[in-house]
TrEMBL record:
Belongs to the DUF177 domain family. Keywords: Ribosome biogenesis. This is Large ribosomal RNA subunit accumulation protein YceD. The keyword Metal-binding does not apply. Transmembrane segments: none annotated. The keyword RNA-binding does not apply. Plays a role in synthesis, processing and/or stability of 23S rRNA.
Amino acid sequence: MIGVTGILDVRVEFVCSRCLSPFCRELRVPFDESFTRDSELLDEERDNLHLVADDEEVDLQPYVEQSILLALPYVPVCQEECRGLTTSGVNRNVFPDAENEVAVDPRLAALADWFKKEE
């Protein structure tokens, strides 16, 4: 059995899920995989143990890619305080005074006009 361990340092470019601005982050991803030629050592409890053929080389690229993909944030944000976009698409981080416009369903526009007349 052969073990490969280490830390993967990766620079990743994201798009903020709130304001759609591009940003970069450094990720430090732990890497720990084991390889064996003996199929009897495989069991369900050892998910990082992989069976390899009798070749002398093992391609680590798919295992590295999987580790990095699993470490990516599900909802990346540029900063915790990101204010996002207005309904018209204005970045509220750049223009903090921009206000959200109230979108009225066109089917209910007549009802909205009726309430305005009541006031």
